[in-house]
Amino acid sequence: MNKALGLLLAVSALSLPVALTGCAAKSADKAAEKAADTAAAPAPSVSPAPSTPAPSPSKSAPGPDTSVLTTLPSGVPKTTAPHEPTDDFSVLTTTGQVRVAGACVELVTDKMVWVLIGPPAAGLRAGQRVKVTGLPDPGFESQCTGSPLKVTTVTPSE
Q: What angle do CA 108, 113, 116 make, to 5 degrees?
């Protein structure tokens, strides 16, 4: 079946220019006939148009900009080494109440919920009010809801 399809496409591709050439020739013949008919017909009478001032010439559009670079710059573009997304974040300290839901240890603050990651967060209990210092880690994948925070220190808060 693939051979038949390939053959059909090849024949179609070869016959397309011939078909288009035939269409163009017919179109040219019709245009020539129309021009001959128009030449044989009497010219319509034309009455003079009321005199109106000719539009004043406007400023012409500027020509193409010839100062465009036509060559590519030489050399290799400068690149930087990839870095962890956490490189873009600063260490932060926040205070809130601990919420434990299954394996998720979360810190609920006034503004958001943090998913606490790391050994310092492992010993926290639900309901504790704590002050946490850590680094946001948006690349951390978890089933928990909240923004991941790699905890460096945890201290009780009042």
A: 90
